[in-house]
Amino acid sequence: MGRVMHSTDRAAKAHDEMIPKVLLRAMAAMVVAALAIVTYARVMDLPVAATPDAAPILVERVVYLKTEDLSGSVTVRDAATGAELALTDEEGGFIAGVARVVARERTKHRAAPDGPVILTQSRSGRLAITDPSTGWSADLMGFGRDNAEAFARLLAGF
After folding, report:
1. What whole-number distance in Å separates Cα of residue 138 and Cα of residue 119?
2. Which of 48, 59, 113, 121 is most buried, taking the most CB atoms under 10 A from its CB?
């Protein structure tokens, strides 16, 4: 007579079939290939080819990001005039999130917490923020159109 399959046998068989061995081998081969390519590029000191060309700066504005209270809101002030450019809502949004990252970087680097940051828009349309006190910077286009537009509005007065 045939063997009766128990539920544990069925579960083990189902588990074995969830990821075919050929797929596991292919994934392992891809990892090894990627590591080999990166190692070759580093050893041969090949130039970085996947970075965008640096375009000339079209607009630049130096601003201060100041957290107002425990609610998370942030005031953005122009460094040259002291004029208030924006006040984020209680949740703070993307601008407040960036302000928290800047504050954390300044804490890590033991830099003054109240220094300015530089907002730039290049001729290619890319937006970036740079903290000169730590060297930290971020391409704001990588966070989505809506988030980048929050900073683009700060530059719109120019």
Report:
1. 10
2. 121
